[in-house]
Design brief:
The chain is mostly helical. The chain is built from 4 helices and 2 strands, in the order E-H-H-E-H-H. The protein is globular, with a radius of gyration of 17 Å.
């Protein structure tokens, strides 16, 4: 499958945003009450990366990369896995049945998993752009 390279760069930026969200899960759990401005900093970073991604995407660039079906399905499963873990984290952290000690473990584990999935997605996309 032929894909514009600028689309792959925007996807790398998207996985970078996912990395920030995974870190935000951990940071907000421990520092959310003492640093309420942290949420605004994360939102500003996300908006900045979003505007930068839009600018990159609107740039006229006709270079094309070839993406194999295996790489496409791997990226698709990474996204599905990411959102499954993130939704489970949001649901379980909002339920009052979860004890505080388990909530600590839940936020650390899911934040770490989200960050690792985002890093692996960036790595796969970097290999696609660099090699092809």
């Amino acid at each position: 499958m032929n894909v514009y390279r600028k689309s792959l760069v925007v996807q790398i930026m998207l996985f970078g945003i996912f990395f920030l969200i995974g870190g935000n899960v951990i940071l907000n759990h421990y520092l959310g009450a003492s640093l309420p401005w942290l949420t605004y900093v994360i939102i500003a970073l996300l908006v900045t990366v979003g505007v930068l991604g839009f600018i990159i995407y609107r740039r006229p660039d006709t270079r094309i990369s070839v993406v194999t079906p295996k790489e496409m399905s791997l990226l698709r499963y990474l996204l599905y896995g990411y959102f499954f873990v993130y939704i489970v984290q949001m649901i379980l952290s909002g339920v009052q049945v979860v004890q505080e000690s388990y909530l600590d473990l839940l936020n650390i584990a899911t934040g770490s998993i989200l960050m690792l999935v985002a890093l692996y997605g960036c790595y796969v996309l970097y290999k696609i752009i660099k090699v092809k």
